[in-house]
Amino acid sequence: MNTSLRDGIDWVGYVDWTIRDFHGYRTERGSTYNAYLVRDDKTALIDTVKRPYADTLVANVSALTDISKIDYVVCNHAEPDHSSSLPVILKACPNAQLVCDAKCKDTLSKHYDTDGWNWKVVTSGDTISLGKRTLTFVETPMVHWPESMFTYVPEEKLLFSMDAFGQHYASAHRFDDDEPLDVVMAEAKIYYANIVMLYGKPISQVLDKAAGLDIEIIAPSHGVIWRKNLETIISAYRRWIVCKPAAKVLVVYDTMWKSTEKMALAILEGASECGVDVRLINIRTSGTTVLAAEILDAAAIAFGSPTLNMTLMPQMAAGLTYLKGLKPVGKAGFAFGSYGWAKGGARDVETYLKDMKFEILREPLQAQFVPGEEILDECRAAGKMLAEKALAVTCEKEGQ
Ligand code: FEO
User: Fold this and answer.
1) Would residue 168 show up in a list of annotated catalytic residues for this protein?
2) For atom 3 of ligand 1, which residue has the closest CA?
3) Is the minimum distance from the CB of 262 to ligand 1 under 6 angstroms?
4) Residue 162 region, left (φ>0) first, then alpha (ψ -120 to 50), else beta?
5) Which of 241, 265, 282 is a domain's end point?
6) Is ligand 1 within 6 A of the CB of residue 261?
7) Which numbered atom of ligand 1 lies nearest the CA of 195?
8) Same structural domain for residues 279 and 203?
9) What's the pTM value of the predicted model, to 2 decimals?
10) How many angstroms separate the CA atoms of 88 and 49, rounded?
11) Are 111 and 83 in contact (CB under 8 A)?
12) What is the rounded distance in angstroms from the CA atom of residue 125 to the CA atom of residue 22?
């Protein structure tokens, strides 16, 4: 496996082929925890890996250098998938200074026994010379935690970007041009939607900071390293940070005895007649990870739930709660669902949509028990309305 980013700069992380649950995120293609070794007159390790894989990190580093002589260990982000090997690594490199910003020092101190750690606290603009190369630090709060930062090596035009531009994607190759771009981009989109959608504004500021740097390689903390398709991933981020809508309609539902499913299919049918991209998601079988990614660029969405115990179905509540946390912006839609003797399902779905500041396109569309042709026609008309909204929003955004 080629792990060399530049002469003397190598990937030394861990490929986690089998992980499928990353704190609730379904990682269908596994992940990687990327760490990097920069060998110059002085040696720096950029980030670490999840604790169970600390031995692999030690072995990868030791294959390239005497680990006990490492001068600096940089911690760009304190989340445990990148920091939980620090106690092991710092024991293996007793002379190393741990480089991080002040908030990161505080966060690490609340995770680990940091007694005896040799800190070097940095802030934006600070530099460390390794010899021919310089580490330059850029604080990037909320990308993905408050203490996060980037490390930039100007002599190599290389940015260690932490979680930004990452993907949960295990592969045999380390670089974007060795893997199918459509698959990598699909995983980058799922990652963005689930990990950083909430932080669109800070990400936007980071993109502005990054625009001022001369960059040929972006080395994130998960997935492949970008050395060929930088413009593709950066322009995708520019769309994603504003949830830029495509002419796409989403119908998301749960169902009990197939009545709400019949309504969902009729809505989909109505939307399909208008030349927009349409997607149907059964929240119970597809799950929230896929839902977040599909929402990111959908212009108009219908959410449906039958009434169960006077309210919406639990998986729909979970999906909507998850979305509410991610705060998608600029969406339009409505609620629908069947009921028996009380109308709580669609009503409570609509409350979530209002909380998320959706533009509500119509009152909840409801059917008692099983929808008849009249209701299904109303569903088709509502689907057409969603599609027309999606087309109008897309044209409006394209014109801006
Ligand atoms: Fe990959 Fe926010 O940690």
Assistant:
1) no
2) 79
3) no
4) left
5) 241
6) no
7) 2
8) no
9) 0.95
10) 11
11) yes
12) 33
Catalytic residue flag (residue 25): no
Angle at 67 between CA 62 and CA 72, to 5 degrees: 130
Token pair 């603009």 in the structure block, residue: 125
| CA-closest candidate to residue 45, choices 70, 15, 13 | 70
Of the residues 33, 40, 72, 144, which is catalytic? Answer: 144
Q: Are residues 227 and 315 in the same domain?
A: no
Q: How far is the CA of 222 from the centre of ligand 1 (A)?
A: 8
In this structure, is residue 397 part of a structural domain? no
Which residues span the domain enclosing 53? Answer: 4-241
222 lines ligand 1 (CB under 6 A): yes
The answer for residues whose C-beta is within 8 angstroms of residue 30's C-beta and 6 or more apart is 15, 16, 17, 18, 19, 20, 168, 169, 170
For residue 122, being part of any structural domain is answered with yes
- In the residue annotation, 339 being an active-site residue is answered as no
178 is catalytic: no
Is 173 an annotated catalytic residue? no
> How does pLDDT run along the chain (400 residues), one tens digit per residue?
899 999 999 999 999 999 999 999 999 999 999 999 999 999 999 999 999 999 999 999 999 999 999 999 999 999 999 999 999 999 999 999 999 999 999 999 999 999 999 999 999 999 999 999 999 999 999 888 999 999 999 999 999 999 999 999 999 999 999 999 999 999 999 999 999 888 888 888 888 888 889 999 999 999 999 999 999 999 999 999 999 999 999 999 999 999 999 999 999 999 999 999 999 999 999 999 999 999 999 999 999 999 999 999 999 999 999 999 999 999 999 999 999 999 999 999 999 999 999 999 999 999 999 999 999 999 999 999 999 999 999 887 765 5
Q: How many CB atoms lie within 10 A of CB 3?
A: 18
Q: Is position 398 within any domain?
A: no
* Ligand 1 centre distance from Cα of residue 163 (Å): 5
| CA 291 / ligand 1 centre spacing (Å) | 20
Residue 10 among the catalytic residues: no
Encoded tokens for 352: 């979530």
Structure tokens at 115: 């007694």
CA of 331 to the centre of ligand 1 (A): 27
Q: Could you tell me the distance, in angstroms and rounded to a whole number, from the CA of residue 79 to the centre of ligand 1?
A: 5
Closest by CA to 89, choosing from 144, 43, 51, 128, is 51
Is the Cβ atom of 50 under 6 angstroms away from ligand 1?
Answer: no
Query: Do 235 and 276 share a domain, yes or no?
Result: no
**What CATH number did the domain enclosing 36 receive?**
3.60.15.10
